[in-house]
Amino acid sequence: MNYKQLDPDLIVATTEQLCRRIRERFPTAGLNRCSEALLEITRQSKVRAAQIGAPMRRLRIGSGAAILLIVCVFVATVMQVRLDDKDLHSGELIQILEAGFNAVVLVGAIVVFLVTLETRVKRRRALRAIHELRSLAHIIDMHQLTKDPERLLHAGDDTASSPKRTMTQFELSRYLDYCSEMLSVCGKVAALYIQNFEDSESVVAVNDLEDLTSGLTRKIWQKIMILHTPKEEARR
Length: 236
What we know:
By secondary structure, this protein is mainly α. It has helices at 8-25, 31-53, 57-80, 90-115, 117-144, 150-153, 169-193, 200-227, 231-235.
C-alpha cells in the first residue's frame, strides 16, 4: 500500500462498504439513492483522475506543430521585409516599430494559448468533476437537515408540516454518522482529481470543497454530540 498517494481502488472499496452499511441499516431511506450516486461518481473518478493526470500527447503534438509553423511563417515574413536606403522619417519609423511590436505580441499570445491549451482542458474537466461533488455534498446535507436530535430530548407537539420522526436515538446517530462519512468521501474523491495535476485553480476548488464538507461535517457532529448528551444535562 502506498501511503504517499490516494488509491482510487481503496476509495471505491470504502464507498461500496459504506453503501452496503446504509442499505442494510436503512433499506427504505432516501439516503440509499444518494449513496449509490456517490458510489457511481467514485467509480468514475478512477478513470477521470487518470485522464486528468495523463499527458495529452496528441494535443501536445498538434500544439507543437502549430507553434513551429507560426514561428517559421513569422521568421520568413520578417526576412522578406526590406527597408529602403533612404532615410526614414520619425513617423514612418514609429509606424514600422509599432507594426512589428503588434506582430510579436500577437504571435506570442498565440504561442501562449497553444502551450497552455492542455492545462486549460484538464482544468475544465477537473472543475466540472469537482462541481458535481459539490452539488452532491449539498444533497447529503439536505438529507440530514430535518434530523433534529433535540426532539428526542425534549418532547413537543408536532405541527401539520412537521417531518415524521420515527428513528430511535441509535438509528439517528448512525444516520448522521453515515452522512458525515459520505461527505468525507466527497473530499477524498476531489483530492484524487488533482493528485497528479498541479494546477492552482483546481487546487483552490478542491480546498473550497473540503472546507464545505468539513463545515457540514462539524454541523452534523454537533447534532451527534447533542444526541448523546444526557437528558438532565441537556435540560440544564
